Amino acid sequence: MTLQLEREPKTMEPALKLRLLPATFTAQPTRIFTSAELNAEIFTYSTGVAALRLTNSRGHLDLLPFQGQQVWRACFDDQDLAMQTMFAEPEPTTEFLATYGGFMLHCGVRAMGNPSPTDTHPPHGELPNFPYTEAYLIAGVDDSGAYVGLTGRAVCRNSFAYGYVVEPELRLYAGATTFHAQLHLSNLRTAPFEYMYLCHINFPARDGIRLLSTAPVDPEHLILHPDLFATVGAARECLAAYHRRLEENIRLSTTLDRAAQVYDPEIVFTMHHLPDKAGRAHTLGLLPEGGAYYVAHRRAELPLALRWIARTGNEEALGMVLPCTAEHHGYNYARERGQLRTLPGGETISMSVEVGYLSAEATAAKCKELGDLLV
To answer: Are 243 and 226 a contacting pair, CB within 8 Å?
Structure first.
């Protein structure tokens, strides 16, 4: 399909909304949309998982329309943005760790995080690999320009308990090296709905990356979680020793250096960002060769953020910022600390992020724009 996109001034609704059907996906990539530099093609991985590739002049995104609407891979200006894991391709499963290799995943919404012994929910809730039956290719022109994207819809209901709709949406714009993603959550019941949400964004960890954000680097705004996880013996002592060093000087964590740091299996921080005048928080990972990883999120809907780093040799992951509504210790931990959010009956909320890569020139411009707010 070749389409000339024209902006309709009275609406931001997509000019094109095309239902995607699993039966039309095959191992042979098939282009289903073209408009100037924007393209979309469908294919299946060797595991049988269906994928949608969105392309512009700067790079591409590989999305899983029927499995969580994950961003499995992202590449802009020849920079591969996804973490290193044991999964080169997605597996057809709803089990979180059995296919944990994606770049960006929606997590929640009835619960989120690592379940404690008293929790009953799966790791990071039902959303990461949710089996969507409704998925749509979208395209149009809005205030940010021409775009191609993906959306979907799922209704989750349980009599006398909950009823809600989740609608993820992603837009890739012409000429852009970042993309815009949202999760729209609607409460179908008259009673308030408690929810949790986290956007799990997983860049590759490399030595020399310098982390900057609008969260001050001090113990009030960058808080180390004391978890030592399942480590034992010498490995546990190495991790504990690094924890002690971070407790003395949290700034030791702001430039990645395998020789001086321990992130095996992982370390997690809570971040409290200061927003800019538009209410957005910003996080950059400055690359040694120039350019940066980049994430922006709205503090109003996502008041917290986590920083998750894992460097095991098999996993090289830099979750430099995971915007969220609660910390990562599961439902009961969030409930006890007042971190559950409430959506009134009949209401909708949208959680929004901008994610991707900035060129060296764009990085300099972003740093100048943010000024002293960026530390």
So the answer is: yes
The residue among 214, 270, 221, 267 whose CA lies nearest residue 243 is 267
Rg (the chain; Cα; Å): 20
pLDDT at 1: 52
pTM for this entry: 0.95
Angle at 296 between CA 292 and CA 301, to 5 degrees: 160
pLDDT under 50: residue ranges of the chain: 2-4, 6-11
Domain-by-domain residue ranges, the chain?
A: 16-373
- Number of Cβ within a 10 Å radius of residue 38: 23
Sheet holding 348-358, edge to edge: 16-19, 134-142, 145-158, 162-173, 178-187, 348-358, 292-298, 280-286, 210-213
Write out the DSSP string of 46-108: TTS-EEEEEEETTEEEEEETTTTTEEEEEEETTEE-SPB-S-SS--S-S-GGGG---SEEEEE
Q: How far is residue 39 from each of residues 8, 34, 64, measured CA to CA in Å?
A: 21, 4, 16
Q: Which residues pair with 86 in a beta bridge?
A: none
| Helices and strands, counts by H and E, the chain | 3, 23
Tell me how far apart the alpha carbons of residues 327 and 283 are, in angstroms, rounded to a whole number: 18
CATH of domain 16-373: 2.70.98.10
Q: What is the pLDDT of residue 152?
A: 98
d(CA 189, CA 275) in angstroms, rounded, equals 33
Answer for the pair 149, 132: CB distance below 8 angstroms, yes or no.
no
- For residue 198, what are the β-bridge partners? 107, 324
Omega before residue 148 within 30° of 0, cis? no
Terminal-residue alpha carbon distance, the chain: 46
Half-sphere exposure of 261 (CA within 13 A, CB side): 24
* Separation between Cα atoms, residue 250 and residue 253, nearest integer Å: 6
State the pLDDT at residue 234: 87
Per-residue model confidence (pLDDT) at position 230 = 62
pLDDT 10s digits, 183-225: 999 999 999 999 999 999 999 999 999 999 999 999 999 999 9
- Write the DSSP string, 224-256: E----TT--HHHHHHHHHHHHHHHH-GGGGSB-
Output DSSP code: residue 373.
G
